Hints:
Elements: H1 4-12, E1 41-45, H2 61-67, E2 73-77, H3 83-94, E3 99-102, E4 107-109, H4 114-123, E5 127-136, E6 143-144, E7 152-155, E8 161-164, E9 179-180, E10 189-192, H5 193-198, H6 212-222, E11 226-238, H7 253-264, H8 269-275, H9 288-296, H10 302-309, H11 313-316, E12 326-332, E13 338-340, E14 351-353, E15 370-372, E16 378-380, E17 389-392, E18 401-404, E19 415-416, E20 422-424, E21 429-434, E22 439-444, E23 454-459, H12 461-469
Parallel strand pairs: 1-2, 5-11
Antiparallel strand pairs: 3-10, 4-11, 5-6, 5-10, 7-8, 9-11, 12-15, 12-23, 13-14, 15-16, 17-18, 19-20, 20-21, 21-22
The structure holds manganese (II) ion (MN).
Cofactor: Mn(2+)
Enzyme class: transferase
Membrane topology: Single-pass type II membrane protein
Amino acid sequence: RYCISTLTSSVSHGKPLSDETDSTGVLRPQWFLEERERNETLLRNQDSEKFNQPKVEHLKEKLEEYMARFAKVRIVRTKKREGLIRTRLLGASMAKGEVLTFLDSHCEVNVNWLPPLLNQIALNQKTIVCPMIDVIDHNHFGYEAQAGDAMRGAFDWEMYYKRIPIPPELQRADPSDPFESPVMAGGLFAVDRKWFWELGGYDPGLEIWGGEQYEISFKVWMCGGGMFDVPCSRVGHIYRKYVPYKVPSGTSLARNLKRVAETWMDEFAEYIYQRRPEYRHLSTGDISAQKELRKHLKCKDFKWFMTAVAWDVPKYYPPVEPPPAAWGEIRNVAANLCVDSKHGATGTELRLDVCVKDGSERTWSHEQLFTFGWREDIRPGEPLHTRKFCFDTISQSSPVILYDCHGMKGNQHWSYRKDKTLFHPVSNGCIDCNPAEKKIFMNRCDPLSETQQWIFEHINMTVLEKFNSKGSS
Ligand SMILES: [Mn+2]
């Protein structure tokens, strides 16, 4: 299945790519490079625990019979389960091509995906290049771009992968030009084979999967190379809801992450341990070979990486959480009742209830502590332990619900004003309530109405004034 519309739209906004597109943005056929021009394909085939189930019969002789017709495909099998990282290393060690391209099995390449990747490597051999990863729906295999399409790869300080907008400084005149990305999303990339091995490949001490995308990303940047996302190269990927295999006990994502942090992140590893204290006592295994490699390649330190490459990441994910503007209970002036989210998840409507401080039945069902934090959103929980749900609403007549925080302001952006209203800039409305029905909803702002006046238990005036002086930004 081809998705020319996605590809052409990425090429056609902005100038056409030299002579590769015509003025309408329609691709000329000579731009296509047939897949068979690839040097070879190595299929890794793991001895996973699912392997002996009837479901995967097709991965045994049937696969060999089928692949016999493709001269350039070789099947490599491991003797025991090695996991993604070591199996990829095995494939890479047997590959003969000049450029290695790693893709997951649940990928489907789009038209002309390869030349834009190879082009970037031809320009600079010490480059890792990633295609744009499009989304293939796991239910119906529909194909579409990710929300926001071209974005930089980033991470928070629990080492969750994040995507952030390309800052103006890094935006190219032609948006189809490759752009720098601090970290890759997963494992879809192309790299010069010699450069990959100069970098030591993946750390073979990493187990099964997890953290390896950070390891290779930090390494390529810190050790004299770079990493680019290539908007003209598009590869569809099925995002699974559930991981269909078990990770053997004794190995864990946490251990991999700590190994990467201890090898590459220097003093910044501390920011992870502050959020994940349980990592402090984990063993990383022997990382002396990794440290030796870092010294041997004369790699720069992580501070350099944060300053020169990932300088925009702390704007979205600061290592040290800035102080909140207000926190604690949120009490309505007219009702003398408190906002209560009942430990709800996404979709939960906020309600009024008797304030816990006023001796409402002390059951665990109440959740009345909130934090109005530096992202100018409101989350359940005390400042250091907020849940990742935010006050969210749509219009001046909508309920106020909890929704997964996106951290991008927008419809989760609130302003706590001097008149005690909780103002929602996007809808130009205020939080109102009906004390009798205990309902909370949006309304047109009326600062004189006491049902729209709310009192936070604690306020940091310095921070709050800073929020409010920024206006409706
Ligand atoms: Mn995948």
